[in-house]
Queue: 2 jobs
Job 1
Amino acid sequence: MSKPLLEVENLRVSFPTHSGRVEVVKGLSFTLGRERLGIVGESGSGKSMTGRSILKLIRKPGQVTADKLHFDGIDILAQSDRQMRDIRGARISMVMQDPKFSLNPVMNVGEQIAEALVTHQKLPRRDVQARVIDMLKAVRINDPERVAKLYPHEVSGGMGQRIMIAMMLIPEPELLIADEPTSALDVSVQAQVLDIIDDLVTRKGMGLILISHDLALVSRYCDRIIVMNAGRVVEECAAGQLENAQHPYTRGLLAAMPLINETRDELPVLDRTQWAGT
Amino acid sequence: MNAIELNNLDISYGDTQVVFDVNLSIPTGESFALVGESGSGKSTILRAIAGLAPNWTGAISVLGQPRTHHVDRAVSRQVQMVFQDPYGSLHPRKTIDAALSEPLAIHGIGNRGERVEAVLKSVGLDQRFRFRFPHQLSGGQRQRVAIARALMLEPKVLLLDEPTSALDVSVQAEILNLLKRLRREQNLTYLMVTHNLPVVSFLCDRLAVMRHGRVVEIADVSQLKSGQLNEPYSRELMAATEGT
């Protein structure tokens, strides 16, 4: 593999509280090439904070420190806000959890997607329009001309999420961070949306960080998995090796999921005292 | 006697009809699941039974009694609902104690302190949570409170609207175990809406698959476990679940 796209060493994120600063990410290190990395963990494990700190989206009083946080050779932590704006969207972009709260309600879909593009590139208006329609087709929206004129409240959740993906991918970033991209969606739509992300990521040779609490889903769509608990990595393995996970936390999460042919009378529950962090 | 019986039920919101000609009978003590994608009308059926979607025609009967179109005190003593989002369903400025005592006050039931203590114990919450506010609790703890509130009036039927979909898998396991234990202890009937088939497999005896406001298939959970659902749409749902 060539030079890694993203290098993270000893990443720490902390927030002040009444009883001193609390670290929510405690010394995370990983590297990412042009591959698909999954970050799994429960609420509060620091997985979203990791995603956000890569884009430098953590505002004061939150504090991010790292020995190294390099994206394609650029030191993210040393970038000014203005410089970050050229990176966000254009080179690294992020798909959020809920399309209902992440799309602008007073702007139609086509304009929103176009905005993402023209912020980073100067293009003639006709080309912009053509790119928007192509992108909507790429996320498998039928009748893209009609959908481009709709407002976010007029589209379904699954469609809204596809629109957000279109918006994030239209500037052709090199790294896509997807933070729970499907947890607001139905099971039947989830697979469709992830297939689209997967397809586009593979075709364009991008890097993907998929953040989710769903182990099964991550193991299906990623090459490598990091399991986080209480701000630390507890396990790192290849996606196919998840069943052979060693750490009791990972095993606990796997066992807590009901199966479609469930025969257990009671589901095993995590004994939290074992990893007591927070 | 059937706990819930629906005959030729059509439900509308304004001019839009969302549920078409649903017939279901759920015997007392059964745990029944409604599955299907968003917008298939499964939550609407629960809302109609609870009296929250009054615009319906057909017949709904609860424990042998025909149901009126509106919220009804006698029915709410027997049928209680648990909502999906534990963050949205508890009043943010009422303590857990106040939230749990309110149904008792409405129905003029005394001995509130002891009842609150007993219900907290049965949902596995420590007494120290009693005088806290919802924001001081985690998602799983809040869902326990929501279930406790539904149990305050000692109902016979619980309507569960996606009770675990807002929770982490490990917390989901705790809530599912709790629901299973409560049903055994208090001999409850469950009507649960979910889109998570493994949850159905764990908690339910039968299921109905819904699409576009109609029930397309009613099956036993053993059929689900062995993958022998008949309708193509049910199979599609199963495939989507197994894939992920």
Job 2
Amino acid sequence: MDYNRFMRLLNKNVKGTAALVLGIWMACGLAAAAAPEAAPAAVAGMAERMAACTACHGKQGRATADGYYPRIAGKPEAYLFNQLQSFRDGQRRYPMMNYLLSNLSDDYLQQIARFFADQHPPYPPPAPNEASAAVLERGRRLVTEGDPQRRVPACVACHASSLGGVQPGIPGLLGLPRDYINAQLGAWRNGDRAARTTDCMATVARALSPEEINAASSWLSAQAVPAGYAPEPALPAPLPQHCGSQPQVQAQR
Amino acid sequence: MKRTRLLKSLGAIAALLIVLPAAVIAWQWLRPEDRGMANPAVDRARQLAQGQYLARAGNCMACHTTRGGAQYAGGRAIASSFGTLYTSNITPDKSTGIGQWSADDFWRALHHGRGKEGQFLYPAFPYTSYTGLSREDSDALFSYLQSLPPVARANQAHALRFPYDQRMLLGLWRALYFTPQSYQPDTRQNAQWNRGAYLVQGAGHCSACHSARNRLGASIEPLALAGGVIPGLQWYAPPLHGGADGLRDWSDEEIAALLKTGVSPHAVTLGPMSEIVGRSLQYLDDADVTAMAVYLKSLPAGAPESSTPLASAEPAEAERIMKQGKQLYGTLCVDCHGGKGQGSAPDYPPLAGNRAIAGPHAVNAIRAVLNGGFPPSTAGNPYPFGMPPFGPQLTDQEVAAVVSYLRNSWGNQGGLVSAAEVNRYRSVPLD
């Protein structure tokens, strides 16, 4: 019997304890015959295999001092996997990334995402910021409150009040270079970056003016990253709008 | 009197310039075509499997699909010296694809290089190779393509410069460079050799990249596979014959390993060849890749391209470049590629004796240092090691120094590279 199909059916149909117990009993029996495929073993030597990534993204993916290439260490695994797939398949445009990933399998991209999600090197202090106090204050308000009148959600509504992101698909926003954040919101506005539909970030980016984008990125990149900064397991409230990159189960509960 | 003579000579010139080409084109247009014999499929499932296998061997999908786009729906831009061509939709969509085609139409395209209405096809579609396919294989390929889900995606017009945008003129090109000809087995060779030749010359269309092209885009001696720089892509495709600068030092097993897994004891794939191994060659039967290896090794060596120094330098200047290159090598490269350029195959390829580095063209080494790259994920090598891109952190002059060092160390004799040469490849599109 096809083990995966069996498990899918089981997940769909389990109603009561009896079925669950039966399921576990059967699964144990089957597991003895064939190892489950849900979590493939980590590949040995990933740090060495990833030399092409860390050349720009820094050791362990911690970013470098060059001021553009983003930190990838510690970002949620599903977020990283989505980005790798998008670069490979052209929904996100950056020639070096498109080129490097062209011929890598989903299986490998999953391994790469997991490897960098599991890295937790320390964050450097934020880079010096030239923005005025007024710009920073405007940025702070956009990030923490949004603009309810124009129905622009606050960053914290989806990226968590800590701005550390949310498992499995929403990335943290601190510890990133201002230029990188500006480039991403700009790319969303002009279609060089697209996420799975509903592409909520495209909607948000198009609602913002270049000045507002600069204010938000200036404030975000000026924040020191607090100790224990990491993606939250879940959000306390539903997402303010549907987002194709983030499964909605937990938010709708 | 004088005037009449002038008119007469003008008439003669006009005849030469207009009438003669027109006659050649008309001959190309009207010449009788071998229609082959349609093969009614006895076993449809077997025919579809054969067609799928051939589609992979020919890597049809790679050109007929955009990055992330619907499979076989066309639209990928093919850069050439004459402008950009856009591949066509070959899904069975009735209005935008080849849903209205018959097996005869398809054979005509593959074997004769002509579209459904008889129009001459641009040879970016490698019918100069596909003409070698048997009618049976053409029919299998057609059946497979017709079994795909139809995708409505209108073809995009080519963006070619004058006069190359005048399709009729392809009649002249064909008269010079194309003869429809199915593969004729060489009876002096065994079945394995002939199978390899059939795949290399036909579906595999190896000569499209591994033979240099002339000014009109025709492969120079396509059967010799003497290597060359691929015009639109700007990568060097090394010689595939059995000569010293070809595959002489490779065993059949090592060639087969590169074709199936993307890595081998001698070299790894990067750039376009990674795509070909990843999407095409890794899916071929072991017997077929071995047959290809046997055939390639049997090809006679051509006269090797001379490895002229790209930048001539005074001895003192050359010494300075080599010193700087050695220093950079010791910082950036030595951990993986070793103190003697020996590498650690298959993960870190050797640089000593590597044809892509020490050969007549430095472009692959320059691009590898600038942009890095990965061999493909394959069943035999699912998690390949990647070469880091050093372009962002090194100056043109530094890249030139380190590549010059690689090309002139450990027995390599490739000539020096200039910063200007490096700079040229910074702006070549990666995609």
